[in-house]
Design brief:
This protein has twelve helices and three strands; from the N terminus they run αββαααβαααααααα. By secondary structure, it is mainly alpha-helical. The longest helix has 30 residues. The protein starts with a helix and ends with a helix.
Length: 272
Amino acid sequence: MLSLSVLLLGCVGCGVCMVGMVMLLVFWRREPEGDALWVIDRKAYDLRPYLGQHPGGMYILEAGQGRDCTALFHSYHALTSKPVKRMLESFFVRDAREEECLDSKIWSWDQTPFYTDLKQEVRKAMGTHRGAYKASWSHLLQYGICLTVWVGAIREWLLGSLWGGVVAGLGIWFVSGDILHAATHYSIFSSQNANLMVGWLVGWVHHVPSMWIRQHVLSHHLYTNIPGLDPDLDLSLIHISEPTRLLSISYAVFCLKKKKKTHNTSTSYLSH
């Protein structure tokens, strides 16, 4: 019983330390080290003066300093109605050198017809209000219930329950991992600080959050299934083959064309 009490106290102590670290991460305003720039669409910008004003928070900008952020920039601003490209102009430093450009060598950002159509369809389906693509109240309730069950299972496991251990283990993936994934994509709350706090406090059991952001958010999601750039191809036990990837893309194009055809037919019918 004494050893269990010591273990519980240790867990509480670790939790307190984790809360303190997350508070420092989110609220401690600090200047990034070095003078490395942010490369977007073959242009280099100095975003350091903008860190504290960025609606998406400081952390994602700090993580992207010194690299080509073109894909990150376009994907995270896909649904915004703000003139984000124009806002960058005041931070322009110089044209990027060829060795600083990575994303622009892979994709052409001047003409993206499928991506443009896809963004329009998503805007129609979800709207442009920021809260429209965050977690709903029902999702938050689901998170609360799952988190409560998981914490209870951990307690039962510490008390010697086999099934408590099984549920606690599953919760590392389905609760801690899911919340870490959603929060580090800033998709749970409208407040980016709230996303970071919840993601770090709950997600550390599944993965070290700072490593997760760099490996998953900044690498896997930007360069999905691209050999040499997607780290999941080296880490995952399940390899997504090239035919599977092409089939997925073809299916997405088929759905988009079908939706557009249905929309045009409906419009034509109503016009008569």
